[in-house]
Amino acid sequence: xxxxxxxxxxxxxxxxxxxxxxxxxxxxxxxxxxxxxxxxxxxxxxxxxxxxxxxxxxxxxxxxxxxxxxxxxxxxxxxxxxxxxxxxxxxxxxxxxxxxxxxxxxxxxxxxxxxxxxxxxxxxxx
Length: 126
Fold this sequence. Notes:
Blueprint: H1 3-13, H2 18-25, H3 29-36, H4 44-54, H5 69-110, H6 112-125
């Protein structure tokens, strides 16, 4: 049984609607629908908040007789890391000028004495 199907089964067993799960977890209804329909793999954050609403441990979502729990955890970590890398790429792409300015300021601040000395020596040679 896939993860989304397992989450849906637990939600129905606890008689919680998708709307109630959405309100209590802070996830959108569309996200919950996509998870339950196995359209996406839930992030660690999504699993955590769903687990809190269900008042259960994340291991409840994994049917250990059909899947290897270590493989499950590894896939989540890889998915989470891929999301982090994509977010980092977007941050750099959208703010590269500010990041460059900050790096230049840090460089000049950390090398201020050397830069000042070089300017003074060059000025005195003229």
